[in-house]
Amino acid sequence: MVMITTRAEQPEFGSGIWEMPDSWPEFMDHDPVGWSLYSVATAAYPDLTVVATDDEGSVIGHGQATAFRLDLDGRRELPDTGWDQVLMWVGSDLRKGVEPDVASALEVSVHHDWQGRGLSTLILTAMRDAARARGFDTLLAPVRPSHKHLEPATPMSEYAYRTRADGLPEDPWLRIHVRAGGVIEKIAPASMVVGSSLVNWREWTGLPFDVDGAVEVPYALTPVHCAPAHDHAVYVEPNVWVRHRL
Question: Looking at residue 12, what is its pLDDT?
């Protein structure tokens, strides 16, 4: 039996969340915006983070979310810089004491032993419920489509809007969002940026990174841009903005 609660209700899950094995690629942990602001953004809203546990009380999945003010000068439109911009807006709002008016999902992670068993749907539903309980009428999500990495050369603007015969998105994770009530609103073409030396990219991926130009990296949604003469490579990840009305 799966139990889902929030970090506010059971704060002891704090460390267990990060100890849970997941499927995120190594390079995703090196976005400097996420590195500096993720913990701040989620710690401020423990009632928006949901945690799934099994019969033994072990963490098998979690959904992290935060909140910020969208109805503010210089904002109002969902940003092209997606995930990173959410974290920067949250950080700014917390420093200035600005009250949030929307919740935003940051990630959903499922233990590898539980993948493919419908747990991500339960977690997303619980995140919607948590945002509604907090008084928000909107949950935004800069979504990372689960199968986009299989087509790194395909523009996200093409991939995200593919549908099946039943009208639902072709991508499994986008399909779960739409089934839950979400609406695809726009593409965030530069949602996350990871840039570093070639030594680091080699360590993260096991690839040589010795050719100038695009490098396809496993689980990257777009090719990584490699510049050997300058000893760096840069990954710009597109996401898909989904809006959930609660």
Answer: 77
